[in-house]
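Bench notes, bay 3.
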Amino acid sequence: LDPRLQPILSYIQAHCQQWGWLSNVGHMTLFAADNETVLALNAQRHLNADALSALSELEAQLAIRVAVHQQGLVNAPKKAAKWYFLPASGQTDAGALTVPDLWLSSIDDCRYPVDLDDFVQINKKLNEQMVSAVVSSLELTATDRVLDLFCGAGNFTLPIARHVEYVLGIEGVPTMVQQAQRGAQACGINNVEFIHADLTTSAALDKIKAANVNKLLLDPSREGANAVLECLQYSDLEKIVYVSCNPQSWVHDCALIMANGFTLEQVQSFDMFKGTTHTELLSVFIR
């Protein structure tokens, strides 16, 4: 647990019995970004004056920011954003509300924006170790052209781009693509291209073919990458690095990769979620 978050948990534990308004909150998220420490309340109904006063006091005591879902604020613009910071003044009129602008850093001086609804790796230290391991396993050179499938906000893509000629990142969630593009711009990285696409469509496959890549990284969700692996052309690929969060789908996908002329060279596990059975697997395939 990031040491910035424990005081928030302790404060909530000490005061929650007095907060009758908590019944209007579906859940809370604690977020330790590089530039802000945030307590986000997913309020399902408008928070009353007592709630806003208590949250302002919490902010002042802990020197953090409180963000509230638009459903919890009477005057929040409904189409502008989902989340708003409570202003220091305690006022909640639309003109006083600001949208969170949160950033996380990674290796090689890379940074990328994140939203409070995003999936992010909660173990920053292990995530950086995993990103370093991916970069090392790909054995990158200045002439490499890399394809990053299921690229998200660029967790792997941006550090890879520091070492190669070109990276193509493809992601199925449009907001993540926008964040990846913002991250690349913030890092001054101009040899990466992010696109939103269904990886199994002809348009995506044509884009992959035109990119003329020689190395592949994929980091799919728990469902695995079966559909896209069945569509890929493998002839120009020298190396594949696969990051998996589900050993069951990983086994099936490994068989597909090896059926296309690759050998499993290495497997490394990362205990990303301490106290659970979930493990991240990093596997390297070579010809």
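Next record in the batch:
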Amino acid sequence: KSSIIHQCKLCSYNSFSRANLARHLRTHTGEKPFKCTLCRRSFSDPSSLKRHSIRHIK
């Protein structure tokens, strides 16, 4: 595990994980790169897309 703290330059968010910081930065940019292939809805993180995709199965 990394001991480097990654800091958001736009707010006070900090994380030991660079991936978490990258996900957090999308809250500032509004970027939603993860798209549902069935309905084209977009999400900012893959876990939200996965949770959404389960709804199409039910």
